[in-house]
C-alpha cells in the first residue's frame, strides 16, 4: 500500500543494468545517471560485517587500489547478476540518487533491459533485485530491442533491421521487425573480454602485468578493430613479471589489434550466424539498410569497417551508442505512460 | 531542398578546389561523383543500393531515405565510395538536417479488442443451464420410473387428449416404489372400502384401519363405481392387514361405456414383500409398487390383466374368485415373473 503512495512521489526509470556501466533514464528527464557498475565493500575486521563503502564512480576509482579490508566488486558478469545482494544495494543507491526528494523512499516503476540470452533464473534475479531496491513495478525488455529503439530504428515497421549491441559483458545481435525480435543471438564477448585479451597480450609479449583499468584505458585510447595506416601509440606502466619492479613501455594500435583478434572474430561470427538465420525477406532489408551498432563496443575505432569488410553490408554506428539501451527503454516508458498495454509488445515476461 | 540540376544533366564537374560549403550536401556529392566520371546507376550498382536512393541523396531528399540512423549509413557508404571524408559528410548532414529533434513516438498495434465478451458469457450460461437441468433431474430422480413413464405414455398421455384432468381414472393409489422409502399419501378420499364378507365370518369385515406400514392403495371410484364382489376364496385367508385396491375405469362417469370385461377382479395376496405391476386390457396401470408382506389387494378392471411380479413365489392370485396357479408362471431363474391373466369364459 505504501509503495503505491511512494510511487506518487517517484519517477519512472529506465535502467540499463550493464556489466560495465549502469545508466538511468528518467521519464521526461533523459539520462540522469551514468556510472560504473562497481561497488566497494568494507569488511569490518573485528565483527566481520560487510558494509557498502562506495558505489559507482567512487568505487571505480578504488578498483585495484584497495587495502585488505576493502574490496571492489563488479556485481554483474556477462550481463547478468553475479552477486544478488550487492546488485540490490547498488540499484537502491542509484535509484535514491536520481530522486531529489528525500522525504519518501522512492518506489518507481522500473524498466530494465536484460540480455536476450539470459535464462529465466537470471531474469528473475534481476527482477527480484529491482523489487528489493524499492521498485514498485519491474518491466523487463530485451536489450537488443531497447538498443534498436534507442538508436532510432523504426522497429514497428514491417522491415527487417539488424542491431548489434556490444556491451561490457555480452554482444547481442538481433533482427527486428514489427515490434518483435525475429532472431536474437548473444555471445559472452564484450568490453571485458577485450580488456582481458589486452592484459593477456601484454603479459605474454612484454612480460608485464597490467590491471583492468589500464587495459581499459589502452582500449579506449588506441584500440582498433581494423588495420589502418595511421598508427597510434600509448605509454603504459605495469609490473615486470621477471624483475618484479614497475616498468614503463609503449604499445601501438597494431599490437592491440592483434590482441583483440580473438574476441573480435567471435563477434563477427555471431553476426554471420545471425545473417544466415535471418529469413530471406528480412535479410534483403538488412542488406539494403545495413547493421546498426550500439553499446560501448561500437565506439572502438574502425569496428564498423571490420564488420563491413567481413559481411559486405553497410554498418552504421548509432548516435551516442553508449546510451542507446537506456534511451530506448525510456522511449518505451514514455509509451507505457500513455498506453499501459503497450508493454505487452516489448516485455519479456 | 530541391536541387537546381539533375545528376544526369549536363553540368560541369567541379574541381577539387570547388568550395563544397557553398552548395548543399547532395550537390556536393553529385559533383564529386561526376568528377569521378561515374553515373548514378554505376554508383548504385557498386554500392548495392537502389538507384532511387542515390538520386534521393543527391537531391537532398533525406526524408525519402528513412530514419536518420540509416541516412547516416547511406551517407557514410557513399562518402567512402567517393573517397570523401566520412566525418565531414556526416557533419554537413547534421548541419543541413535538424537531427536533434525527437524521434517519432513508438507505435504499438494492439490486437483488435475482441468483441465477443457476451459470447464468452454465453458458454457460462450454457453451463449453468446444463447444471440446472442436471440438478433438477437428480432431485426428481426418485419420481422417475421407467415403467411409470411407459404407462403414462401408453395410457395416460394417450388419453389425456380425450380425458380431462379430473379423469375418473382417479388412480388415487398410495404407491410405494422400491426406491421410495415411504411414499406420500395421495389418496383422494378416505372412502372406506366396501365390506368384504368372508366365508368363515359372515359378519362384515372390520373396517380396515389405515396402516402406514401397509401399502394401501385406495381408489375412490366415482359414482357409479363398480363395487368389487366378495371373494370367498381369498377372504378365507386371515390377513394381518387388508387393503383394497380397486381401480375402475369410467369414461366421464358413464358406466355404460365400460367394456364387457371390465368386471374382472383380481385378488393378490402376498406372503412376502413383492413388487407388482398390473395393467388392464387398455394398458392402464392398475397397481404399481411394492406390496408389503401379508397384505391382500383387490383390483378390478377390464381383463385381460398383464401382471409383473418381482417376487412371484410370494404371491397368490385369484382371478374372478378362482385361484390362479402361479407355479406355471415361475421363471426358471430369478423371481421376476411376467404373464397375462385372462378370465375364464
Automatic annotation (TrEMBL), chain A:
ATP binds at residues 19-21, 168-170, 216-219, 296-299. Its main location: cytoplasm. GO terms for biological process: cell morphogenesis; regulation of cell shape. It comes from the Bacteria. One of its GO terms (cellular component) is cytoplasm. Keywords: ATP-binding, Cell shape, Cytoplasm, Nucleotide-binding. It is found in: Cytoplasm. GO terms for molecular function: ATP binding. Signal peptide: none annotated. Forms polymers. Forms membrane-associated dynamic filaments that are essential for cell shape determination. Acts by regulating cell wall synthesis and cell elongation, and thus cell shape. A feedback loop between cell geometry and MreB localization may maintain elongated cell shape by targeting cell wall growth to regions of negative cell wall curvature. Belongs to the FtsA/MreB family. This is Cell shape-determining protein MreB.
From TrEMBL, chain B:
InterPro entries: Bact_Cytoskel_RodZ (IPR050400), Lambda_DNA-bd_dom_sf (IPR010982), RodZ-like_C (IPR025194). The chain crosses the membrane at residues 121-138. Residues 1-23, 158-216 are annotated as: Disordered. Residues 161-178 have a biased composition (Polar residues). Residues 268-340 form the Cytoskeleton protein RodZ-like C-terminal domain. One of its GO terms (molecular function) is DNA binding. Residues 190-207 have a biased composition (Pro residues). Gene3D superfamilies: lambda repressor-like DNA-binding domains. Keywords: Membrane, Transmembrane, Transmembrane helix. The keyword Iron-sulfur does not apply. This is Cytoskeleton protein RodZ-like C-terminal domain-containing protein. It comes from Candidatus Contendobacter odensis Run_B_J11. The lineage of its organism: Bacteria, Pseudomonadati, Pseudomonadota, Gammaproteobacteria, Candidatus Competibacteraceae.
Amino acid at each position: 500500500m505504501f509503495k503505491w503512495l511512494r510511487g506518487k512521489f517517484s519517477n519512472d526509470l529506465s535502467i540499463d543494468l550493464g556489466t560495465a556501466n549502469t545508466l538511468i533514464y528518467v521519464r521526461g528527464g533523459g539520462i540522469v545517471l551514468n556510472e560504473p557498475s562497481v561497488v566497494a565493500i568494507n569488511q569490518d575486521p573485528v565483527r566481520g560485517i560487510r558494509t557498502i563503502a562506495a558505489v559507482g564512480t567512487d568505487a571505480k576509482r578504488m578498483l585495484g587500489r584497495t587495502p585488505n579490508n576493502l574490496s571492489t566488486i563488479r556485481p554483474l558478469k556477462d550481463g547478468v547478476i553475479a552477486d544478488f545482494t550487492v546488485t540490490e544495494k547498488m540499484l537502491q543507491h542509484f535509484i535514491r540518487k536520481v530522486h531529489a526528494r528525500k522525504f519518501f523512499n522512492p518506489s518507481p516503476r522500473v524498466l530494465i533491459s536484460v540480455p536476450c540470452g539470459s535464462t529465466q533464473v537470471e531474469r528473475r534475479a534481476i527482477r527480484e533485485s529491482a523489487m528489493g531496491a524499492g521498485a514498485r513495478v519491474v518491466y523487463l525488455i530485451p536489450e537488443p530491442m531497447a538498443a534498436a529503439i534507442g538508436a532510432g530504428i523504426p522497429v514497428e515497421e514491417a522491415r527487417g533491421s539488424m542491431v548489434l549491441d556490444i556491451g561490457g559483458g555480452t554482444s547481442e545481435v538481433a533482427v527486428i521487425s514489427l515490434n518483435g525480435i525475429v532472431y536474437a543471438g548473444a555471445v559472452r564477448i564484450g568490453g571485458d573480454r577485450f580488456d582481458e585479451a589486452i592484459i593477456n597480450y601484454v603479459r605474454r609479449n612484454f612480460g608485464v602485468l597490467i590491471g583492468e583499468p589500464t587495459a581499459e584505458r589502452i582500449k579506449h585510447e588506441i584500440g582498433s578493430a581494423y588495420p589502418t595506416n595511421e598508427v597510434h601509440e600509448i605509454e603504459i606502466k605495469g609490473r615486470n613479471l621477471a624483475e618484479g619492479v614497475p616498468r614503463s613501455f609503449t604499445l601501438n594500435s597494431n599490437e592491440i589489434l592483434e590482441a583483440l583478434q580473438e574476441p573480435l572474430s567471435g563477434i563477427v561470427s555471431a553476426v554471420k550466424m545471425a545473417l544466415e538465420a535471418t529469413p530471406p525477406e528480412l535479410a534483403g532489408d538488412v542488406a539494403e539498410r545495413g547493421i546498426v551498432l550500439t553499446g560501448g563496443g561500437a565506439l572502438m575505432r574502425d569496428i564498423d569497417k571490420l564488420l563491413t569488410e567481413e559481411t559486405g553490408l553497410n554498418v552504421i554506428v548509432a548516435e551516442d551508442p553508449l546510451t542507446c539501451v537506456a534511451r530506448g527503454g525510456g522511449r518505451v516508458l514514455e509509451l507505457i505512460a500513455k498506453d499501459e498495454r503497450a508493454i505487452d509488445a516489448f516485455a519479456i515476461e | 531542398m530541391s536541387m537546381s540540376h539533375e545528376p544526369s544533366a549536363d553540368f560541369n564537374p567541379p574541381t577539387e578546389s570547388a568550395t563544397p560549403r557553398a552548395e548543399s550536401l547532395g550537390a556536393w556529392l553529385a559533383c564529386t561523383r561526376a568528377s569521378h566520371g561515374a553515373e548514378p546507376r554505376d554508383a548504385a550498382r557498386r554500392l548495392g543500393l537502389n538507384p532511387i536512393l542515390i538520386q534521393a541523396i543527391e537531391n537532398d531528399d533525406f526524408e525519402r531515405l528513412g530514419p536518420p540512423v540509416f541516412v547516416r549509413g547511406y551517407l557514410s557508404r557513399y562518402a567512402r565510395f567517393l573517397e570523401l571524408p566520412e566525418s565531414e559528410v556526416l557533419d554537413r548532414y547534421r548541419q543541413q538536417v535538424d537531427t536533434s529533434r525527437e524521434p517519432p513516438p513508438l507505435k504499438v498495434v494492439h490486437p483488435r479488442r475482441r468483441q465477443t465478451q457476451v459470447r464468452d458469457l454465453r458458454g457460462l450460461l450454457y453451463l449453468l443451464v446444463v447444471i440446472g437441468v442436471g440438478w433438477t433431474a437428480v432431485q426428481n430422480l426418485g419420481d422417475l420410473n421407467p415403467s411409470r413413464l411407459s404407462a403414462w405414455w401408453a395410457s395416460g398421455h394417450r388419453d389425456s387428449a380425450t380425458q380431462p384432468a379430473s379423469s375418473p381414472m382417479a388412480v388415487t393409489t398410495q404407491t410405494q416404489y422400491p426406491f421410495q422409502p415411504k411414499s406420500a399419501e395421495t389418496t383422494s378420499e378416505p372412502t372406506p372400502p366396501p365390506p368384504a364378507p368372508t366365508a368363515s365370518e359372515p359378519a362384515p369385515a372390520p373396517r380396515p384401519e389405515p396402516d402406514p406400514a401397509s401399502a394401501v392403495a385406495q381408489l375412490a371410484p366415482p359414482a357409479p363405481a363398480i363395487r368389487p364382489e366378495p371373494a370367498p376364496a381369498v377372504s378365507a385367508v386371515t390377513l394381518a392387514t387388508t387393503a383394497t385396491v380397486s381401480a375402475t375405469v369410467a369414461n366421464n362417469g358413464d358406466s355404460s361405456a365400460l367394456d364387457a370385461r371390465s368386471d374382472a377382479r383380481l385378488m393378490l395376496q402376498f406372503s412376502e414383500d413383492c413388487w407388482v405391476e398390473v395393467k388392464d386390457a387398455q394398458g392402464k396401470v392398475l397397481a404399481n409398487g411394492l406390496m408389503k408382506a401379508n397384505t391382500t389387494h383387490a383390483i378390478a378392471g377390464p381383463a385381460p390383466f398383464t401382471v409383473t411380479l418381482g417376487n412371484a413365489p410370494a404371491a397368490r392370485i385369484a382371478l374372478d374368485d378362482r385361484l390362479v396357479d402361479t407355479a406355471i408362471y415361475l421363471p426358471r431363474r430369478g423371481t421376476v415373473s411376467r404373464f397375462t391373466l385372462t378370465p375364464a369364459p
